[in-house]
Amino acid sequence: MGRQISSEARGADVNELSIVAAGGYMLNVVTGGSGPTVFFVHGFPLDSRMWERQYRFSSVYHVVAPDMRGFGRSSVYEPYTLTELADDIEMLRNRLAQGKRIVLCGLSMGGYIVFEYWRRYAQHLDGLVLANTKPTADSENVIQARREMAEQVFERGTWDTVRGMMPKLVAQRSTPDSELVTARVAEMLAATKPAAVAYGQLAMAERTDFKDALNEIDTPTLVVTGEHDPLCPPDDTLRWASHLPKGECEIIESAGHLSPMETPDVFHELLSRFLKKIY
Ligand code: MLT
């Protein structure tokens, strides 16, 4: 059964592929277009559909937006680390971009995966986009809360476990479009498998702290966050982004944590400008 695709995504020339990894799990990937390859890595607990308003980049670039292990339509059987998710991106780069260099764009959890990918495969990158994310690892309290959620989700189900995240994800605005975005995000959250929530939380809890490595990231990097993002606030983001040797940082007015969904035209403009400088 096909999943519901929004009108924005329908306007773009993209398809879904199933890629079987060596580990036996299947990754669902939205892809289309030709030219330099731009990967879009989603946040938690979302899936590739969070990028559907950016699929129009496929008119100029080769777009690849995977559902990471367990999320969306991808399968998962056992816990993993964010390093293994970075290896999944590398496997997809080899299969879908014929081993060519890429621009890697990730939001929040996707950004944590981008840092891991940079650590392992910096030589394969033409550029990085770090949207609504942070380089720091978690405090003990946050790690504990993630472990609790990972346990509870199998009993309570996904929606009851994650619905409290909704106000932190989407900024409160009362435009018809923001209501649509809120409904779309709720739909994605509710459809996420309990195992994806549990394994995603456990992987994020174990992640590496990259704050002392920022000045070694010698790749052009665009950092973006939303004016009203409570999880990755503008002041913190401007501060850490200033350590990137080739970084530029933009704060998107009126956006919350999901800037590519909430303010798609501004996000599109910033990313277009960045990509034009690289390619
Ligand atoms: C996300 O949007 O990916 C999450 O907020 C990341 C996190 O839980 O740290």
Question: How are the SSEs ordered, and which strands pair?
Answer:
Blueprint: H1 7-10, E1 15-20, E2 26-32, E3 37-41, E4 62-66, H2 82-96, E5 102-107, H3 109-121, E6 125-131, H4 140-156, H5 158-162, H6 166-169, H7 176-191, H8 194-205, E7 221-226, H9 234-241, E8 247-252, H10 259-262, H11 264-278
Parallel strand pairs: 3-4, 3-5, 5-6, 6-7, 7-8
Antiparallel strand pairs: 1-2, 2-4
Helix pairs in contact: 2-3, 4-8
The protein binds D-malate (MLT).
Explain what the structure shows:
The chain is of the alpha/beta class and 279 residues long. It has one domain: Alpha/Beta hydrolase fold, catalytic domain (Rossmann fold, 3-Layer(aba) Sandwich). 41% of the residues lie in helices and 17% in strands. Strands 1-2-4-3-5-6-7-8 form an eight-stranded mixed β-sheet, with helices on both faces. α3 links the parallel β5 and β6. D-malate (MLT) binds next to loops.
